[in-house]
C-alpha cells in the first residue's frame, strides 16, 4: 500500500471467465479512501469509490453501473487485487500503480 497521493496513473487488468482486459486508469489514494477511474467502452468515465475497511482493504461502489468491488494491498505494494460484480457478472481485477 502506497502513501496517499492526489492522483496516480495505473493499469487495470480485469478477469472475466477466460477473458482478460487491460486498460489504463487513474487512482486517487487519500487517507482512508481509494477511487479508481477508467473509461468504459462507450467513452463514459466510471469511478469505483470506497473506504478503507482495514489496513489495505477497500470496499468500493460505482454509481455509473451499480457495480461493487473490493481491492486489497500489502503495505508498500503497488498492486491492488480484488473481486468485482456488475449486473450479475463477476470476476477478479488487479490495479497496478505506475512508478512514482
Walk me through the structure.
- With 100 residues, the chain is mainly beta.
- Helices cover 0% and strands 69% of the residues.
- It is built from no helices and eight strands.
- It has an eight-stranded antiparallel beta barrel with strand order 1-2-3-4-5-6-7-8.
- Strand 7 (79-86) and strand 8 (89-97) form a beta hairpin.
- It is globular, with a radius of gyration of 12 Å.
- The two termini are 13 Å apart.
Secondary structure: elements and pairs:
Layout lengths: L4 E12 L2 E12 L2 E7 L5 E10 L2 E6 L5 E5 L6 E8 L2 E9 L3
Antiparallel strand pairs: 1-2, 1-8, 2-3, 3-4, 4-5, 5-6, 6-7, 7-8
Short description:
This protein is an all-beta fold and 100 residues long. Helix content is 0%, strand content 69%.
Amino acid at each position: 500500500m502506497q502513501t496517499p497521493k492526489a492522483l496516480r496513473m495505473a493499469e487495470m487488468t480485469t478477469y472475466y471467465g477466460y477473458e482478460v482486459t487491460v486498460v489504463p486508469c487513474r487512482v486517487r489514494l487519500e487517507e482512508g479512501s481509494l477511487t479508481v477511474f477508467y473509461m468504459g467502452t462507450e467513452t463514459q468515465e466510471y469511478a469505483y469509490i470506497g473506504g478503507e475497511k482495514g489496513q489495505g482493504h477497500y470496499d468500493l461502489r460505482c454509481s455509473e453501473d451499480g457495480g461493487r468491488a473490493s481491492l486489497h494491498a500489502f503495505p508498500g505494494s503497488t498492486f491492488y487485487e480484488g473481486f468485482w460484480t456488475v449486473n450479475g457478472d463477476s470476476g477478479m481485477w488487479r490495479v497496478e500503480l505506475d512508478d512514482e
